[in-house]
């Protein structure tokens, strides 16, 4: 049994006058501790699938299970969601933001709070506990958002273009940080991105989607050597340019077919 199983997902958005099918026949099995990316043209349903995995709404057809349970039935804190914006509460300190999930769950164990705050050191934010979000850079706020997401110990992290608003140097540093942190905690991650290089550097497997409706067009498995590297090192591996060009050509063909 797969850790995270996505079985024959179809989804159609209905309005009073139209019906738009966003996803069709999506199936994948994701093993615990793996990192996968969803890549494809705009409008191919990547974020829709992420929202369904998160249990935000039910698919028109199909089933998603986490450890054998439908995602709608699992504790909502078992699936963490990290977005392009950090969504830290500006009136709360970094410490208060990071421990917010524990307070919402009414988990008052001092050890849990101590472990949550230790995550700030893990992501290089020691000493910022009493500061407010406005005092931190964009990259630092995203680190705080990562610590907040991990603090409730989710089984799966859903990452919806979390680095796209950052400058390139900060983005590369955060790719390494997120990758190493998730590996150290053996977390399972699903990343939505438009960045081919990011997908190659961070992933064990890439699912390339076609659009109208969104379907799995092709699957790329990263070789073991790439998977064991940091994202920054993976970008400098000899196989990286070949993989990049291969995925680029497939994406171009998908874009051409849409015209």
Automatic annotation (TrEMBL):
Residues 4-236 form the ABC transporter domain. Coiled coil: none annotated. CDD domains: ABC_NrtD_SsuB_transporters. GO terms for molecular function: ATP binding; ATP hydrolysis activity. Keywords: ATP-binding, Nucleotide-binding, Transport. SUPFAM superfamilies: P-loop containing nucleoside triphosphate hydrolases (SSF52540). PANTHER family: ABC TRANSPORTER ATP-BINDING PROTEIN, TAURINE IMPORT ATP-BINDING PROTEIN-RELATED. This is ABC transporter ATP-binding protein. The lineage of its organism: Bacteria, Bacillati, Bacillota, Bacilli, Bacillales.
